[in-house]
Design brief:
TetR/AcrR family transcriptional regulator; mainly alpha; TetR_C; transcription; DNA-binding; DNA binding
């Protein structure tokens, strides 16, 4: 597809956001291209102009949008893990995000409709996890510089473990509707980081 004009880019984004909102409200299984066309006031030719691959390409774009929102919903706390108070605020923001989301995860529902072994679907998840882990690792490194976390701790490994705790807690929440396990996982993860805190000079 040729590069879009500014107007074309805006129209594509409007269709994408409209599709994401409809899926959030009605679920991906009950969302058709006709629903999206009606919601966004676009024709079939317009829809296929911006998403030549049809429903699957549109769903993949929605998945990317929802993946971006996962990180956006944690800001500015995620990008400013520079004190223990900041880490606690981030912890609370993560719990609040998933509590508000409830048992319906837009990203998970969209991904379940895509062929999970396709390069596109794998790339969405991989990019999200890489970006999320990098943000957490940056916070660990900052705390190491401030002598608040043991400098011998591997920041990337610590971030990967904490991210795995979050994902495990969220998975249980999707089944139970409760954030109890997510909160416990985050609290234990942060307690582990604090346990390696260096003595004050």
């Amino acid at each position: 597809m040729r590069p879009l004009t500014r107007k074309g880019t805006a129209t594509r984004q409007r269709v994408l956001e409209g599709a994401a909102m409809h899926i959030r409200e009605h679920g991906v299984a009950d969302t058709t291209l006709d629903d999206i066309m009606a919601r966004t006031s676009t024709s079939k030719s317009q829809l296929f102009h911006y998403f030549p691959g049809g429903r699957e390409e549109l769903l993949l774009a929605v998945a990317r949008l929802e993946a971006d929102r996962v990180l956006e919903d944690q800001q500015p706390q995620l990008g400013d893990l520079t004190s223990w108070d900041a880490w606690q605020q981030w912890r609370d923001r993560v719990v609040e995000r998933y509590r508000n989301q409830g048992r319906q995860c837009p990203l998970n529902s969209v991904m379940s409709q895509l062929r999970g072994n396709t390069p596109g679907a794998q790339a969405v998840v991989t990019e999200l996890m890489n970006r999320w882990q990098a943000e957490i690792a940056a916070g660990v490194r900052h705390m190491q510089t401030a002598d608040e976390i043991d400098p011998g701790l591997d920041p990337d490994q610590a971030a990967a473990a904490l991210l795995a705790c979050i994902q495990g807690g969220v998975l249980i929440q999707l089944s139970t509707g409760r954030t109890t396990h997510l909160e416990a996982a985050l609290d234990m993860g942060l307690a582990y980081l604090r346990a390696d805190r260096l003595p004050a000079n």
